[in-house]
Amino acid sequence: MFTFTRRRILPVINAQICLYSETGKEIKPSLTAAEEELKGHSDVSGRLKSVEVSSADGIKWRTPWHQKEGQRYSVLRTFYSEHNNTKIMKFMQAPIDLSPSTLRKWWTNRKKLHEVIMQQYIPERNRTLGNELAAAHFIVHRGGSVKFFDQDFWIKANKFNQYELPDRFKADWYLQGIDCSNMELHYEGLVNLRDLEKTEWLSIKGCENMDDWCMDRISNIFGRTLLYLDLRECPNISHRGLGALTKMSKLKILYVDDITYTNEFEMTCLMLQQVLPDLDIRIE
């Protein structure tokens, strides 16, 4: 009769456990079969019983630190990419191309990546200024303008990127309007506008990076307060993005382009007006 030893048993257990992580299926039947096969070996049987895995529904992958909402990217984050391995393989297999069009494309992608990283949420800024002033600094520093309640003027940086905003928390400063027209605003930068209490006016006119995913985030951030929204000259926003505006319960005026005027676009506008009877959709 063949006798199992401890050294030969452990790889069998590890192989059964690895089977779960690779296939994503339940391994309880496999563990039960292993228990019967190894019956009589008390140390191994006890180790198998200590593994409590019922189904894949109870297991979730941990979110990487750089993908967690609100985490600040370090300087080294510039050299990190979720697709580093695939990019390296493509680079090694592709022929060397130093044509002007390729170099321009590479430089454009690098500038976009740098801008995305620079628009990441910085917790220290919000702790120092508060959510209202932190959002104001974020917008004005990048070429936009803001307006606060009880003020009859908009704050915008001059040609030297100088502007007047408090550098400490002010309890009675609340943003009323945000103008992001023609800004290089990305999806990752929208998180800097969250937790604003009373913002009523928002324009992302001419923001070419805004798309349907951005509309979903905007509707979640301003769903309870926004009255005015300008979406003109945003070619990447389709009728799917407009459908997310149903969560804006107080929206009164919506500006959109007629460039993408299709049957789907018309049906989405009708749906919005049915859900929001007070909404005035202005197509230009």
From TrEMBL:
Q: Which InterPro entries match?
A: LRR_dom_sf (IPR032675)
SUPFAM superfamilies of this UniProt entry?
A: RNI-like
Question: Which superkingdom is the protein from?
Answer: Eukaryota
> Which family does the entry's similarity section mention?
Belongs to the ATP synthase subunit s family.
What is the protein name given in its UniProt record?
ATP synthase subunit s-like protein
